[in-house]
Structure to design on (217 residues):
């Protein structure tokens, strides 16, 4: 494993201890980016090796409280088949979102099969959506069943749908590194952001360019 890949994987395996690997600039894209080196099959690494990994990510990202996360991991251990099915469902959603966002970043139409997958999750999410009063305001709320192993997925799906249907898709970019595959929302003033982060892909590209220049002199 080379130095750059090792850095990325360490970031993923430190139980989400800091925010340095949230490069999507949108929580939905951060979710999609939970695969390292997606475009390089021999190096690709999924952050969600287990149901517990996925729950820890959801706690780190802010979708779940620490106490809810602990309770979910306990449930997952008690019913491994159910937690495995839940993990597979989340991965199917993630991959459909990746392909849809990637298509939009390339000014292409997402595949109907991916939109269908997202729509199935969206329909389930909408059935959990309701309004509730909070002091003098009204806020969106999500009804979660006690045995639900994926309580964060309805809101995540809703936010993904909002991004997919917004004019912000014109700002979605894929990292310019040929083996990266991470997506981000380009919020730069001139819309010329190229890298998920300069700390990995950007610096690696600069090093390669420097090497090429030196080798020709």
């Amino acid at each position: 494993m080379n130095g750059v890949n090792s850095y990325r994987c360490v970031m993923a395996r430190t139980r989400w201890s800091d925010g340095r690997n949230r490069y999507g600039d949108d929580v939905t894209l951060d979710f999609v980016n939970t695969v390292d080196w997606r475009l390089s099959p021999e190096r690709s690494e999924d952050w969600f090796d287990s149901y517990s990994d996925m729950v820890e990510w959801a706690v780190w990202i802010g979708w779940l409280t620490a106490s809810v996360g602990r309770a979910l991991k306990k449930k997952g251990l008690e019913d491994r088949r159910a937690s495995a099915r839940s993990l597979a469902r989340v991965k199917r959603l993630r991959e459909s979102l990746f392909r849809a966002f990637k298509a939009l970043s390339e000014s292409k139409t997402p595949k109907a099969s991916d939109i269908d997958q997202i729509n199935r999750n969206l329909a389930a999410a909408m059935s959990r959506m309701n309004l509730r009063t909070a002091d003098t305001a009204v806020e969106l709320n999500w009804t979660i069943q006690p045995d639900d192993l994926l309580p964060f997925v309805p809101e995540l799906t809703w936010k993904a749908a909002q991004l997919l249907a917004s004019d912000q898709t014109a700002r979605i970019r894929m990292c310019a590194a040929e083996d990266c595959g991470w997506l981000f929302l380009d919020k730069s003033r001139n819309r010329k952001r190229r890298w998920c982060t300069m700390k990995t892909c950007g610096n690696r590209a600069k090093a390669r360019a420097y090497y090429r220049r030196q080798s020709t002199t």
